[in-house]
Design brief:
By secondary structure, this protein is an alpha/beta fold. The protein has a seven-stranded parallel beta sheet with strand order 13-14-12-15-16-18-17, with helices on both faces. A hairpin with a 2-residue loop joins strand 8 and strand 9. The longest helix is centred in the middle third of the chain and has 23 residues. It is elongated, with a radius of gyration of 29 Å.
C-alpha cells in the first residue's frame, strides 16, 4: 500500500512492491506503474486514483490465453461496477488459474451440468462469485448468459452475490461463509472415492473425477478448513486439488497483521502434497505443471499455493484491501482497461474468445458420450451393479423398501432410550439404502451410530460406510454436505451430542440453505443427561433449529415416532433434518406410524372432541403428560394428549387436520406444553408451560426432575390451574 509522501513533488507509485516469500526469497511481479505529481507533504492513500501515463502490465505472452483471462477479469469488473456491489479483486487475481482449469484441465459437459463423472469445481472464496459466473458463461453453460451477468446481485438474478447451488446450474455447492467450501470439496472428493470403490471394476472405471477448489486467506484462517483438511490428508484423498490464492490481503489490510504462519508446512503436516506457483499472475505454464504434478500423486490431496496480486491490472488499487470488496469506480475501470490493454467496452467479449471457449460444448458432449458407451459395456458385464448405479447415482433415487424396513423395526422395538432406538433404525435402513453413509464426531459408542457390518471409510477401505470424523463437529457437517452435493445418491448422516451442534451450526444452516437432506443425529438431548451438567445440557437448541428455515427439528418419543422421523428424513431430499434423542429410557406408546408421519397427532383422548385441556409434549416428556393425563382423567377431567415430534411437518398438514388436533374452541389458557427445554416458540400451540428457561445443573436425573419441576406431579399441579 502507498505510504506517506514527505517532500517529493514527483513519485513513482507501485501497487505491488516486491514481497518476501515464506522461504525468504523475493517473488517477482510486474505491476502497473505511473509517475504521479503530488503536492509536498500529502499522504497518498491506498486505492487513490491518480493522473498520469500508465505502464501496461505484464501478461502471459499467450495471445489467446490473455484474451480469455482478461475476459474473465472484465466480466467481473463490469458486473461489479454495474451493480456497485461485489468483490472484483479475487477474480482479477485468480483468472489465470481458473483459465487453466477450465480451458486445459477440467472434464465437464456444459450442456449437462449434472453428468455424474464430471470434475467438480468449488469456489470456497465465494465472495469472488463473479469468477464462477464468468467461467460458466464463457465455457458454454446455459445457466448464465451475458444478460444474467449484467444483472449480477440484482433481484431474481441467477448470479447472486455468492454462488448458490440451488439457483445456478454448474455451481456445485453454496459458498460464502469462509472455509465451508473447502470442507464441501473434501466431501465431494470423499464421495468420489467411496463411489469409485463401490462401483468401479478392474476393467471399468465409471466413477473417475477430480475435485478442484479455490480458497483464500480467509478460508485458511477459519478453523473449519483445518479440521476438514486434516481429515482429507488422513483419508488420502488424492483426487482433491486445492489452489490457495496467496495474495496476502484481507479486508482489514495486509495479512501480516494477523496471519503469519507457514500454511504450506501446516498442510504438509496434515499429509498433503504442497506445491508452489510463485508467479500466479502470468505464469500459466507453471500452474499447468503444478496440476500435472498434483495428479501424479494418487495417495495425497494437493495444495497448490498460488502467489497472486489481488486486483491484478488495476493501477491504483491492486495489492490493496480497497479492491477486495467494492467496485473499482469508473476512472479506475478505465485505467485498468488501459493497463491490461483491453480495448473492449463493458460486457463486450471478442468473438475469437467465445469461438474458442464454446468449443468445450462439443468436447464435453463427446466426453459424456464416451462415458455412456463405457457404461453400456459395464451394464452388460455387471448388470446388478449397473442397476443400482442407475437408481442411486444417475436417477438419485432411494431404493424401495426403506419404509417397510422402518415400520418393521418400529413394531419389533419396545421401551428403550431413544438413542438406542435410533441405532436400531439406522441399521434397519442400511441394508436397503446402500447410499446411506455417515458417522460421528468421536462419539459413535455414545451416539450409537455405527452401521454394523459395513466397515469404516478409510484410505485403504474407501468402500466403508462408517465415517470416523474425530472431534471435528463443524467440518463433519460441511463434509457431509459435500457428500450429499456430489449428487451420487449418497444420503449422509452425522452425529454428536445435541449441545455440540453449537460447533456445527454454520454447516447445518448451509445444509438447509443448500437444500440437501443431510441428517444430523444428536443424542443427550436435554437436562436429563444428568451429571455432566449445564455445559452439556441443551436448553435453547430445540427452539433455535425450529427457527431455522428448511429444517425439520425432530424429537421423537418412542420407536414408532423415531421410525417415522427417519422415514421423513430419507424421503425429504431437499430438506435438512436434525434429530434429538434421549440418553434415558422412554416408554413405548400405543400409537400409529401413519399418525407419527404427520409430525403431530393425538396420543390419547377421553374428551369426545371437547377436552377440558390439552397436554402436549415432545420426546421423553410425552411420558410425563401421558401419566399426568391418566391421573387427571381419574379425577373426572377430559384430557387430550398430543405429541409433536416435528413441528415443521405438522405445520405442512392441511389446516383441517391441524384444527382437529388443536381445536380452535380450546383456548390457549387450556393448553399446556411440557418440554425439558426453553418455552420459546411454544406460544404457537399453548399458553401454559412446564419448561426449562435457565441453564441446567449437574445432578442425577431424578434430582433434576425435582429441581426443574418435570415430574408427572408437577405437570398435574400446573394443569389444575387451568380448570
Amino acid at each position: 500500500m502507498a505510504g506517506f509522501v514527505s517532500s517529493f513533488t514527483l513519485v513513482s507509485h507501485s501497487v505491488s512492491t516486491p514481497s518476501v516469500s515464506k522461504k525468504g526469497s523475493f517473488i517477482a511481479s510486474t505491476p502497473c506503474t505511473r509517475k504521479v505529481a503530488k503536492p509536498a507533504g500529502l499522504v497518498m492513500m491506498a486505492g487513490e486514483v491518480k493522473a498520469g501515463p500508465i505502464t501496461k502490465v505484464k501478461q502471459t505472452g499467450d495471445a489467446m490465453a490473455d484474451k480469455i483471462i482478461n475476459s474473465i477479469r472484465f466480466l467481473a469488473i463490469d458486473a461489479v461496477e454495474k451493480a456497485n456491489s461485489g468483490h472484483p479483486g479475487l477474480p482479477m487475481g485468480m483468472a489465470p488459474t481458473s483459465y487453466v482449469l477450465f480451458d486445459k484441465i477440467m472434464k465437464f459437459n456444459p450442456k449437462n451440468p449434472q453428468w455424474i463423472n464430471r470434475d467438480r469445481f468449488v469456489l470456497s472464496a465465494g465472495h469472488g462469485s463473479m469468477l464462477q459466473y464468468a467461467l460458466l458463461y464463457l465455457f458454454g453453460y446455459d445457466s448464465v448468459s451475458i444478460d444474467d451477468i449484467k444483472s449480477f446481485r440484482q433481484a431474481n438474478s441467477v448470479c447472486p452475490g455468492h454462488p448458490e447451488n440451488f439457483v445456478t446450474a454448474g455451481v456445485e455447492v453454496t459458498t460464502g461463509p469462509l472455509g465451508q467450501g473447502i470442507c464441501n470439496a473434501v466431501g465431494l472428493a470423499a464421495a468420489e472415492a467411496h463411489l469409485a470403490a463401490v462401483f468401479n471394476k478392474p476393467d471399468a472405471k465409471i466413477i473417475d473425477n477430480y475435485t478442484y477448489c479455490i480458497l483464500g486467506d480467509g478460508c485458511m484462517m477459519e478453523g473449519i478448513s483445518g479440521e476438514a483438511s486434516s481429515l482429507a490428508g488422513h483419508w488420502g484423498l488424492g483426487k482433491l486439488i486445492a489452489f490457495y490464492d496467496d495474495n496476502r490481503i484481507s479486508i482489514d489490510g495486509r495479512t501480516s497483521i494477523s496471519f503469519t504462519e507457514d500454511v504450506g508446512k501446516r498442510y504438509e503436516a496434515y499429509g498433503w502434497q504442497v506445491l508452489r506457483v510463485k508467479e500466479g499472475n502470468t505464469d500459466i505454464a507453471s500452474i499447468e505443471k503444478a496440476i500435472a504434478e498434483a495428479k501424479a500423486d494418487k495417495s495425497r490431496p494437493t495444495l497448490v499455493i498460488v502467489t497472486t496480486i489481488i486486483g491484478y491490472g488495476s493501477p491504483n488499487k491492486a495489492d490493496s484491501y480497497s479492491v477486495h470488496g467494492a467496485a473499482l469506480g469508473a476512472a479506475e475501470v478505465a485505467a485498468t482497461r488501459e493497463c491490461l490493454d483491453w480495448k473492449h467496452g463493458p460486457f463486450e467479449i471478442p468473438k475469437e474468445v467465445t469461438d474458442h471457449t464454446f468449443s468445450k460444448i462439443a468436447e464435453g458432449a463427446k466426453l459424456e458420450a464416451e462415458w455412456k458407451k463405457s457404461f453400456e459395456a459395464y451394464k452388460a458385464k455387471y448388470p446388478k451393479e449397473a442397476a443400482l448405479f442407475e437408481i442411486q447415482c444417475i436417477k438419485n433415487q432411494i431404493p424401495e423398501g426403506y419404509e417397510a424396513a422402518l415400520r418393521k423395526a418400529a413394531a419389533e422395538t419396545g421401551s428403550k432410550a431413544t438413542r438406542q432406538i435410533s441405532e436400531i433404525m439406522l441399521n434397519a435402513i442400511a441394508p436397503v439404502v446402500p447410499g446411506f453413509v455417515g458417522g460421528s464426531a468421536d462419539l459413535a459408542s455414545s451416539n450409537l451410530t455405527i452401521l454394523k457390518g459395513y466397515g469404516d471409510f478409510q484410505k485403504a477401505t474407501p468402500q466403508g460406510r462408517n465415517f470416523r470424523f474425530g472431534v471435528r463437529e463443524h467440518a463433519m457437517g460441511a463434509i457431509c454436505n459435500g457428500l450429499a452435493l456430489y449428487n451420487g445418491g449418497l444420503i449422509p448422516y452425522n452425529a454428536t451430542f445435541f449441545i455440540f451442534t453449537d460447533y456445527q451450526r454454520a454447516a447445518i444452516r448451509m445444509s438447509a440453505l443448500s437444500e440437501v437432506n443431510t441428517i444430523y443425529v444428536t443424542t443427550h438431548d436435554s437436562i436429563f443427561l444428568g451429571e455432566d451438567g449445564p455445559t452439556h445440557q441443551p436448553i435453547e437448541h430445540l427452539a433455535s433449529f425450529r427457527a431455522m428455515p428448511n429444517t425439520y427439528m425432530m424429537r421423537p418419543a418412542d420407536a414408532t415416532e423415531a421410525a417415522a422421523m427417519y422415514c421423513i428424513a430419507l424421503r425429504s431430499r431437499k430438506t435438512t433434518s436434525v434429530m434429538a434423542y434421549t440418553r434415558q429410557n422412554t416408554n413405548k406408546l400405543n400409537v400409529s406410524f401413519d399418525d407419527a408421519l404427520k409430525g403431530g397427532y393425538i396420543v390419547t383422548d377421553n374428551s369426545n372432541g371437547n377436552p377440558d385441556a390439552i397436554l402436549m409434549a415432545t420426546g421423553s416428556e410425552v411420558d410425563l403428560v401421558v401419566e399426568a393425563a391418566d391421573i387427571l382423567r381419574k379425577e373426572g377431567k377430559k384430557i387430550r394428549v398430543v405429541s409433536l415430534p416435528c413441528w415443521e411437518v405438522f405445520e405442512e398438514q392441511p389446516k383441517s387436520y391441524r384444527d382437529s388436533v388443536f381445536p380452535p374452541s380450546v383456548p390457549m389458557n387450556k393448553r399446556l406444553a411440557c418440554e425439558a427445554a426453553t418455552s420459546f416458540g411454544w406460544s404457537k400451540y399453548a399458553g401454559v408451560f412446564r419448561t426449562v428457561d435457565t441453564f441446567g445443573a449437574s445432578a442425577p436425573i431424578n434430582d433434576l426432575r425435582k429441581k426443574f419441576k418435570l415430574t408427572a406431579a408437577d405437570v398435574i399441579e400446573l394443569a389444575k390451574t387451568m380448570f
